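Ticket #4471: structure output looks truncated?

Reporter: J.K.
Steps to reproduce: submitted the chain below (186 residues) through the standard prediction queue, then opened the result file.
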Amino acid sequence: MFRKPVEARDLLAQALESPGKPVLKLRLVCMGHEPDLKAELEKQLQPFKVEIEVVDILRDKKDLVFKRDSEAEIVRKGGKVKIEAFYPFNLMKKLSLQKPKVGEWRELVESVMIDFNYDGVVFEPSVVDIPEDNAFVKGEYAIPDGAGKIRVKITDLLAESFEMEVKRDGCAKMKVWYCFCTSGVL
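Returned output as attached by the reporter:
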């Protein structure tokens, strides 16, 4: 990501400062490319030395990791907010190497915070559930009279937070998918 546009005079100044060293490092992420892409770019950018890495997500699948953000099922029924399920996938992935099965979702939670009058900007929790020692969070919370928009924040044992708004009546579910390249940084 460029912090500012790259200009030829900046490249020239850097080339004069450090002759023989790359003046620019580029990582190109492509879905298919010509085999001579790197060589052609280096040729076009002469006389400047440029370090180029081409990552083809169709060919270099070993460098791809699909990460899923946490998911939760939170229900608002009978004057209560109930967290029925919570899946912190990053944590579960790490635990799968150490622990074959997680029996209770609450084992994976460090804290639950609820703002019963969320204004859409500032999260001000009126309920903070941080269990002591080996206890679990409650997972079910009474809705106070006069409650407005409800927002729940769940923090897992890796300190990764998941936030979502709970709808008036019924169930709220949220899923987010990410894909990124994990190859080394230039």
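Triage note (M.O.): checked the attachment and the full token line is present. Residues 50 and 143 are 60 Å apart (CA to CA).
Status: closed, working as intended.
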